[in-house]
Amino acid sequence: MADTIQSTTSSDASAGQPTGSVIRRFFRATEIDTRMLGMVGALLIIWVGFHVLTGGLFLTPRNLWNLSVQTASVAVMATGMVLVIVTRNIDLSVGSILGFTGMVMGVMQARFLPEILGFNHPAIWILALLTGLVIGGLIGTLHGVIIAFLGVPSFIVTLGGLLVWRGATWFVTSGQTVAPMDPNFRLMGGGTEGSIGATWSWIVGLLACVAIVVAIVNARRQRKRFHFPRRPVWAEYVLASLGCAVVLGAVAVANQYYWPINIARRYAEANNIEWPEGGLLISQGIAVPVLMAIAVGVVMTFIATRLRFGRYVFAIGGNPEAAELAGIKTRWVTVKIFALMGVLCAIAAAISTARLNAATNAQGELDELYTIAAAVIGGTSLSGGMGSIAGAMLGALVMQSLQSGMVLLGIDTPFQRIVVGAVLVTAVWLDTVYRARSK
Fold first, then answer.
1. Are 106 and 114 in contact (CB under 8 A)?
2. 60-194+305-439, which class in CATH?
3. What mean pLDDT comes out for the span 52-76?
C-alpha cells in the first residue's frame, strides 16, 4: 500500500513539472552526454541540409556508405590525437607520417617483397603492413623522446616532422607514384571486395548489440559492487534500445548499397548465375576500413578508460605538476602517447593506400588539420585533461560530412578549406564558452 501511494505521488509530481524539468531528469537518469547529443544534432542538421541542397543525393545508401569509408582513416588518427591533446600537446605531423608510411608500405608490396617472395605471395600484405606499423611507431617514439627528454615543445617538433617526413616521402621513390597494391592489401580500402556482404554485416550488427547489452549489464554490476549510484532500470533499457537501433540501422543502410551492375554481371558470368530481369542485387555490406576504424575506437576507448596508462594520460592533462609529484613517469607516458600516435598513423595509411590502390606523394596532405579538428569538435579541450574517443570519431564524421556535401554541391576546394577552418575556430570558441560556464 505504501509503495502504491509513493508511486502515485511521484507520478503526480512528475506530471505537474514543466517539460524542461522532465527533460533534465531524463538526461540525468540516462547520463547521456549533452555535448555528444548536441554534436549528433548538428550532424543530423548537416545531413538534412545537404540532402535538400543536393536534391536528394546526400542521404542515399551509396553516399552514406562512401562517407563511412572516407571517414575511416581520419577517425583512426583522431582517436590518438585525443590523448595527445589531453596531455596539452599537439601533433602536426600526422598527415606526413601517414604519407611516408603509406609510401613505404607501397614500395614494400609493389617492388621489394615481390622480388623476394614472388608476386601475389600471401605474406606480402602482412609484411608490408607490419613494416609500416613499426616505422610509424619508431617515428612517433622519436618525436616523443625529443619532446619529453629534450624539452622541445611538441608544436615545434611535430611541425618539423611535418616537413621532414613529407620530404622523406618524396625521396623514397623520387616523387613517383607506386601502384598497384597487393590484392589482399586492397581489402583494407573497401570497395566491392573490401566489404563483408549482407549476411556477415547482420551477424556483426547482432554481435555489436549483444556487446552493448553486456557492457551495460556489467557496468551496472560494477556500480553495485562498489556502492556507486545506479541508473534506473528503465534508463538502462532506453540506452540499450538506442544503441541497438543505431547499430542495426547502420547495417540496414550499408546493405542497401549494391554492387555496380557491371561488376555484378561479371560475377554472375564467372559463377554461372543466370542474370535476372531486374538485375542481380548483391549488397556491399559494411566496409572493412569501417570495421577497422570501429575496432581501433573500441581498443582506444578501453585504453583511455580502463587501463592505468589512460588514467595517467588524463591526470597529466589535468595537472602535470601534481601528476609528477604523485609518482607518474610523465616523460615516458608522453613517449608512449606519441609512439601510439605513430602506429595509428600507419593504420590510417594502410586504409588510405588500399583505398587509392596507390601510394602518392600528396597522400595525407592537410590530414593533420582534419584530425585535430575532429578531436576538438568531438569535445577534446585544448587546455588538456578532457577528451572523448567516441566524440573524436563523431567529429571526424562531421568533418567528412561537410567535405562530402560541399563536393556534391560542386564547391571549389579553396572555399571548402575556408569552411573547415571556420568550423574549427567555432568549435574551439564553443569549448572555451563551455569550460567557462562549467566553472
1. no
2. mainly alpha
3. 94
